[in-house]
Design goal:
Elements: E1 3-4, E2 15-17, H1 21-26, E3 32-34, E4 53-56, H2 61-72, E5 77-80, H3 83-89, E6 95-96, E7 99-100
Length: about 100
C-alpha cells in the first residue's frame, strides 16, 4: 500500500472520502466523492476514473482499509496520511453544503 502526505495531493485532485455522513457534512475536500467505507463494495461502480485515486478518512485508518481492498480489486489508489485531520491542519480548502469553510 502506498501512502501520500496531504501536501502531495493537488488542491484540485478528485479524492475518495470514506468517512460517515456526519463527518462528510462537517467538511470535506472540494472535489471529493463520498462513499462511506461500509458502502464501498456495493458502490464500487461510482468510483471516479482517474489515474491514481487518493483515499481519505478522518485520520487514515479506514482509508487504509479501503486502499487495501481497492488494490485487490485492481484500482490504483493511495492512502492520504493523517486523513482529513491533516488536511484541515495544513489549511487546505474544506467545503460544507457547497460553501467553502476554509
Amino acid at each position: 500500500m502506498t501512502d501520500i502526505t496531504v501536501s502531495q495531493v493537488p488542491d484540485d485532485a478528485v479524492i475518495l472520502d470514506v468517512r460517515e455522513q456526519d463527518e462528510w457534512d462537517a467538511g470535506h475536500a472540494p472535489n471529493a466523492v463520498h462513499i462511506p467505507l461500509s458502502e464501498l463494495p456495493t458502490r464500487i461502480d461510482e468510483l471516479p476514473e482517474v489515474d491514481e485515486l487518493p483515499v481519505v478518512c478522518r485520520r487514515g485508518g479506514r482509508s487504509a482499509q479501503a486502499v487495501a481492498w481497492l488494490e485487490q480489486q485492481g484500482f490504483d489508489v493511495v492512502n492520504v496520511e493523517g486523513g482529513m485531520s491533516a488536511w484541515e491542519s495544513a489549511g487546505k480548502q474544506l467545503d460544507r453544503d457547497g460553501a467553502t469553510i476554509i
